[in-house]
Amino acid sequence: MPLRHFPDIFAVDYRLLSLFALFCWGIWGFATKLVSRGQPAEAVAFWSTLASMLPITLFALAGGAGRWVRPAPLALGSGLAAGVASVFFYMAIKRGPASVVMPLTGMYIVIPALLGFIFLKEPPTAMHILGLVCAGLAVFFLTR
Q1: pLDDT, tens digit, for every residue of 2-60?
Q2: 59-63: which pairs have CB atoms within 8 A and are 24 or more residues apart?
Q3: CA gap 108, 112 in Å, rounded
């Protein structure tokens, strides 16, 4: 069943959807630190990733995931990179303070922004550059 048959939550502005994701990732990050204090990183990574498959699967099936074979190789590569990053993240969160690991790993945002400017020819504005500088300063101060 295509997404157009679902409630209008999918018609919400991308900025609001981004804030929803930000909130959920914030809860995920905090809960991950809580559980990783007493459990092996491998177990936390496994169960967290397994639980994430339910909403992802429902979302993909609702959107007709079987129809898009052409972008599958790039999507698989993207997922592989996310999986490797997750392994490193869970190892780091087990060993370090959440107040350092979360903002440091959160700086991944700089990489797609820069790659978008370079390869996708997305025009950087002064506000974009300022935002990236502020993100860098935030990590600098939070990791001290």
Answers
A1: 555 555 556 788 888 888 888 888 888 888 888 888 899 899 999 999 999 998 888 88
A2: 62/1, 62/2, 62/3, 62/6, 63/2, 63/3
A3: 7
